[in-house]
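Q: Predict the assembly, please.
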Amino acid sequence: MLDVALASLIEDMIEKAGADGVVEFWQRVGDNLASRMGKEAYLGWTSFNVAVREGRTAFSIEGEVTPLTDMAITDVDGDVVGYLYAMRQCCYVPTLVRTRYSIGQMSAADRTVAEEYNRNVHDIAVCNFCVFHERFREEIAKNISVAGNPLACHLLATRGWSGERKISTKNLSKVNINEEHVRALLRNYECVYALVMRGARLKGDR
Amino acid sequence: MSDARIPDSNPFVEVATHLFLEDLAAKVGVAGLNNYLLSLSKNLAASMPPEEYATWAEFLGALREGHSILATFEEVRPVTERCMATLRSPFERGWREYAKRVGAFANVHREVAEYYNAKVRPTAVTSLHIVLNTFREAASLRIRVADRPVRYEPIATVWVDGTKRIPVAEKLDGVLERAGISRTKLGMLLRNHSDVWLIEPA
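A: Predicted assembly structure:
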């Protein structure tokens, strides 16, 4: 119920602080939540990916995350320094469905916040929750180390409830993943991101 | 919840919303958060379609089947014609996820409940009960049964950790009489229900 009510809170905050204020607010909430979730360390990618599958990592708070172990990211020496991860369903979709069946239509505030974020921060949001979500993942990645290396998270692609797709060319270039590969993943998944070892030198890096 | 009801939310969204409210409280204080919660609950109820029922029996059926706006977010079990019991708090999953992944619930959720208890009515254990009580009250005003408006009043609440909130003795007897249940029956209901409340023609 709180999730459905949230839209009216955001409407109210847009009136008071503007859509840019809501974006900042959501990002700060992402920082706060991540900072309260503590640190994690894994021996290597295998143990991290098992932990993701079993829902034991901080990323698991979002729901079911699939490690795409056939989509490894390698460095200049050919060593694996990351993988792609995907969610079959966006965390916010149940809220959109619940809003549809309880109220009738999602508030325009949802789109207003997403558009503000897309214009001024990163053109990847398909709903207001993406704003919080991207920052949250970026921050928790810093608190997780694999083989002693802290991670970095790059949100690559999102698919909204109505079918709208967003692909981040900026982040794809950081991990050397082909746009067509990610586009194909969006048929099955609604949110795709990469986790890579921070500071790794990827193929194509100068 | 059965398939006929709306799907459950992803608890992550609720955890994020709790953090959202905590951040808000840091800015506007406990009184300000209380006002926000009252306002968002009333807005939520106001955005839902009004309802009319020809008879009280039809209304009870809608509550039982989850068709009424009062049963949108919770599974309501009519105990008598006037007394309703909610099986599980609609906030339980979010709170459990918060406790599991984040840690102890921030104090501000109880502080704002105490503020609400002192200023509005003594029925809340956490901030979430402010939302629930205000929503039920505002939603019941959108319902007419046999052309008469409907009125809501909370009787008792048990939070997930077992904390109870029951009206003081002298007030409790009057509410229980209108609800058509005894103190013993209330105690029995509170063993395995999160909320017991009264709904009656206004």
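Chain A has a mean pLDDT of 92. The CA atoms of residues 30 and 133 of chain A lie 7 Å apart.
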